[in-house]
Amino acid sequence: MALLDILNCTLRFGGLTAVKNFSLALEPGELVGLIGPNGAGKTTIFNLISGVYEPSEGDIRIEGKSVAGMRPSRINRLGVARTFQNIRLFPQLTVLDNVRVAFHTQLRTSLLEAVLDDPAYRSEEAWVEDQAIALLRIFGLDEARGERAGSLPYGEQRRLEIARALATRPRLLLLDEPAAGMNPQEKGELMEMIRWVREHFALTVLVIEHDMSVVMGICERIVVLDYGNVIAAGTPAEIRRDPKVIAAYLGVDAPELPGNDAPGAGR
Questions:
Q1: Contact 4, 26 (CB under 8 A)
Q2: What angle do CA 103, 106, 111 make, to 5 degrees?
Q3: With CB atoms 3.0 to 4.6 Å apart as the test, which of 61, 175, 203, 265 could cross-link to 213 if both were Cys?
Q4: How far is C-alpha 187 from the geometric centre of its chain's CA atoms?
Q5: Are strands 204-208 and 221-226 parallel, antiparallel or unpaired?
Q6: Contacts for 238 with CB less than 8 Å, ≥ 6 apart
Q7: Global pTM?
Q8: pLDDT at residue 176 above 90?
């Protein structure tokens, strides 16, 4: 059974069809890229999976269970976590507290026990802090735990957002343009981190990314959207040479798309 199964999903906003008959199955442990020109519908797909939007037609299933129309919080409890194209941290909270808040779905003590400072509550809070610090250490952020999240450099904010997503204990991680705004060195580090996170946390990962050097370098399979429609799917090598993909990105007569081994990749 696929971990994620999107079945002929269509999303309409009035007379605008943002996504049309989109289907995608992700097996446990896959690392798949979702690419396409600006406005192709990529983030809309993430919003459908995570419950921000409900499909006009079709279904979305997590391990066979339909999640179409569920609240985002319920879908998160089923093991789906995401990051955002525009970083959405709590900038005034500390780095540590940004991760701590993501553990709330795993807590068992009640509001009354928290108000009374019950020993069970204190024990859970100590566990959360230990777990949060362990995650920050993995991402090289433990020494910044007391700093405001909004004061971190851009690349570290990206890492913090991924750490916070992992605090919800997902099985499926959706990364929306994680390399946006990063310099070449940070992108290289990000690629290694995504590979490591996938293996270490036994995740299935779906990545939206504009930087071809990143998506071609880490993804085993790529799906290409244009105007809400799937126009190609295959390995990075197949996608790089696909005429429909080249036309959508660069024009009909352009050479093949750059990848991780091509001059100018990622510019």
A1: yes
A2: 90
A3: 265
A4: 16
A5: unpaired
A6: 232
A7: 0.86
A8: yes
